[in-house]
Amino acid sequence: MSFRLPDGAGLFRLSALKPSPAGAFPFGLGREGVHEVAAAGPGDMTAALGFALAGLAQARPASLIWVTERTRAHDHGPVREDVAAAFLRPRPIILHVGVRRTIDVLWTVEEALRADGVSLVLAELAEADFTATRRLTLAARKHGRPAVLLMDQRREGATAAEARWRVKALPSAPNQYDPQAPGRPRWEAVLERARSAPGDVGRVFALEYDDETLSLDLVPGLAAGPAAPRPAASVPEREAG
């Protein structure tokens, strides 16, 4: 598969923002390698998506390939480009690709990472084993394009990704203009895995997204220490006999 974007899509200026070191927050999210963002619970997919887009905004992408497994769209709703536009400014060229199976998502992401004119790749999928994430990581490193894999609360197990985040929604920040209205979005993000910063694994970041500066800011007084252990996945009981 080849991805052809309009003329000039591959000609973009690097972000004027100073990139953070790979071993510092947000640990290369949206800038290099493959990163996973997983929901903390069944109701946190929107928070996970918001966090992922806010992280991607740091790179000021000129073009984005957004790949969705159709079962994910059925569970969590269709892709909303207006949501992406709220985080990514200037608004990038967005090419949405919907596919039926997880294996198709993985293949499409790998091909997109190889394509000229693509700034980065975002994929919503059900799962990805170690071998699959290893292939994507090698492709991302070889071609210098980052990818973010967005998954639900069932995401567990080994990964070759640079990092894995577990995200849940927090109450929004106070609205300075209307106390009854929601303010800037806030999320709690747990760093579950990090190749560049293994000593930071387990840290909890309470974050607020500033839509004026397109930045993720730590919330004073809310940034916690190590995360609490995640409950073990429930296993259906079998009847004897």
Brief characterization of the structure:
It comes from Pontivivens ytuae. With 241 residues, the chain is α/β, with parallel strands linked by helices. The chain is built from five helices and nine strands.
What attributes characterize this protein structure?
single chain, 241 residues, alpha/beta, Rossmann fold, 9-stranded mixed β-sheet, 5 helices, globular, disordered C terminus, P-loop_NTPase, Protein ImuA
Detailed description of the structure:
It is a single chain. With 241 residues, the protein is of the alpha/beta class. It has a single domain, classed as P-loop containing nucleotide triphosphate hydrolases (Rossmann fold, 3-Layer(aba) Sandwich). It has helices spanning 45-57, 70-76, 81-87, 102-114, 130-143; strands at 34-39, 63-69, 93-99, 120-124, 147-151, 163-170, 186-194, 204-210, 215-218. A nine-stranded mixed beta sheet has the order 3-2-4-5-1-6-7-8-9, with helices on both faces. Helix 5 (130-143) links the parallel strand 4 (120-124) and strand 5 (147-151). Helix 4 packs parallel to helix 5 (130-143). The radius of gyration is 18 Å and the shape is globular. It starts with 33 loop residues before the first strand and ends in a 23-residue tail after the last strand.
